[in-house]
Amino acid sequence: MSMILRGLPICLVFALVIIGHAERAEAQTPVSVANSAAKYVDQSNGMTADEAVKSAIENNEQFLALLKEAESAERLIEQAEQRARMSVSANGLQQAIGKSHRYSIQTSIPLELGGRRNARVLVATQKAKIKRKRVEQGESEIATAVRRKFGETLALILRLELTEEMLNVTQNSYRLVQARVVEGKTAPLEENMLLVEVNRLRSARETDESKVQIALLELKNLIGLSVNTPLRLKGDLKDSLTNFPLLAELTERALQTRPDLELLRATVDLADAKTDKAKKDGKFDASATIGYQRLRISPAVQFNYVVFGMKIMLPHANKSRDAIEASVLESQAAEKRRDFAELSVRKEVANALIRYTSAVRAKEITRVGVVGQAENNLDVVRKTYEMGSRSLLDYIAEQRRYIDYKNGLIKAELAVYLARIEVYRATFAPELITK
Length: 435
Description:
The chain is of the alpha+beta class. The protein has one domain (34-432): Outer membrane efflux proteins (OEP), CATH 1.20.1600.10. It has helices at 2-6, 10-27, 49-59, 61-81, 116-183, 188-223, 247-257, 259-281, 321-386, 392-427, and strands at 87-94, 101-110, 285-296, 302-313. The relative contact order is 0.12.
């Protein structure tokens, strides 16, 4: 190294030495860490999960498109309820050489026999119902995604808080050891070991804060906020305990209210409505005509007539048999999908409830039997280290275990939070979407 420095200009060597001393001084001088998590949480004026869901539904362009489609389908019901349009025709006959002529005007009114109009309205109604159920399904999907991301972001903020808390504790310990080294009561090796631990936690803090910022950006995207809009959250993972009804009641609620099931049932009804419409379209229909005719043979001879009649539309040769069979097959396919979806919903509700109850038990075991005991162990090891009965390595190892256990508790709380959301989603509970 000295040979390399000899070959460099004296000014460059001097600059490298200064930079090296500055970097070492920066690494050996821990600075108190402010609570960065406070930048992301505001329990007074922050955004709650319910407000985030409302904002997402109001600003999601794809969901707004579903709303427009539903409105369009409802307008088509009004269109289908209107009677078939009348037609008016006029014609005349003029003698090429002479003054005799005949003029007539008449209107034709479709009668739509056999309940054709009612069948047409029923098809339009079922189509509008399907569109409306897709809107409800879209609301459920958006609310689920937002609540999941909200909980995951809260968990990352809690992890950042834990890292900063342990960093501050380690920095305080480092200052005490540093003072002991100056007094000659502790070996310099312990100071260096604690400095390594401080820098490790500083690095972990930077990583944790970047994860929080990325999660907030993803949450902003979900709820329709711009990247530069400030966002602070309001809430806690500890408020996730809920007394759910029994499995049978939850399953029944899901079977009655899930929009995806309602959509499939509406699809079955639409297929049946199409079958009924095809049957009625295959029958005969008629339209009535009425009009006026004026016949002039000479100035002295002219006649006025009222013209009326009936036009019959004969049925198809096969009476729309092919269309009827196609609609029946469509109805059978929709029924199969509905039955399969009902079985899947039963399984989803059972799985969600089992997941929730298991997550609650695991969280309580972790909170009481793991983190609580680990906190006591860390306090004992810290005190015994300060008295000289334990080594610094024992203290650092116990602190790292405590951090791992506390992170495990955060994951357990998040698991309860997400499991509760899954129960809400599986049963389409009102708590999933607040209006």
